[in-house]
Design brief:
This protein is of the alpha+beta class and 193 residues long. The chain folds into 2 domains: 70 residues, no CATH class; 78 residues, Alpha-Beta Plaits (2-Layer Sandwich). The protein has 4 helices and 7 strands; from the N terminus they run αβββββααβαβ. The strands form 3 sheets. It has a 3-stranded antiparallel beta sheet with strand order 5-6-7. α2 packs antiparallel against α4. The two termini are 38 Å apart. 13% of the residues are buried.
């Protein structure tokens, strides 16, 4: 929950109250230094000097000790006059969106790119995110696959056109189905005796 909590804190610009810590530890000199417990939520303003960052620690019952530092993404900018830029439901510009294509052969991937290009050109009102979601979740994933990325219709249709017309090498992959392996770490079952 800590990672999600901090991502949401960055997104909303609000540092949440420290839970279950109404009485600070007496073993820490809280008067010296700048560390303090947040007894109530506080604004987390954006500064030009540096992006917001947060360190998240997690201590597991089996001795796991993990720490991660996250940083807010850079502000998205769109070029003036750019057509086809997409926004989400609340008007925030979308980040890079992947479109995943697959087929039984490399030529089938190119054919799918051509059909998708025709669809996108005939339906420019369909969101790039909706197309990406449909390609990733509603279609069968065949052995030959490739993916393109972009932030708007213009970038993605340009990449589709390159694949469909074979003007670029399509980096398709064809991998045999992998094997399932089980890994038991930390409790010694992998060792004899």
């Amino acid at each position: 929950g800590g990672v999600i909590k901090m991502i949401e804190a960055m997104r909303h610009g609000l540092l949440p109250k420290t839970l279950h810590a109404e009485t600070p530890s007496t073993h820490i000199d809280w008067e010296t230094g700048s560390v303090e417990l947040l007894t109530q939520a506080r604004d987390w303003p954006v500064t030009d000097a540096r992006p917001r960052r947060a360190g998240i620690s997690s201590f597991g019952i089996s001795g796991t000790n993990a720490h991660v530092v996250i940083e807010e993404p850079p502000a998205l900018t769109t070029e003036e006059g750019e057509e086809g830029s997409d926004t989400d439901q609340i008007g925030t510009p979308l980040p890079v969106v992947p479109w995943v294509l697959s087929g039984k052969t490399e030529q089938a991937v190119r054919d799918q790119a051509a059909r998708l290009l025709t669809f996108v050109e005939q339906h420019p009102d369909v969101s790039v995110a909706d197309i990406g979601r449909a390609l990733a979740t509603e279609r069968v994933a065949f052995d030959h696959r490739t993916a393109i990325t972009g932030t708007n219709h213009t970038e993605l249709t340009h990449a589709l056109r390159d694949i469909a017309h074979a003007t670029t090498h399509t980096a398709t992959t064809a991998h045999p189905h992998g094997k399932t392996a089980f890994l038991f770490t930390g409790q010694g079952a992998q060792r004899i005796g």
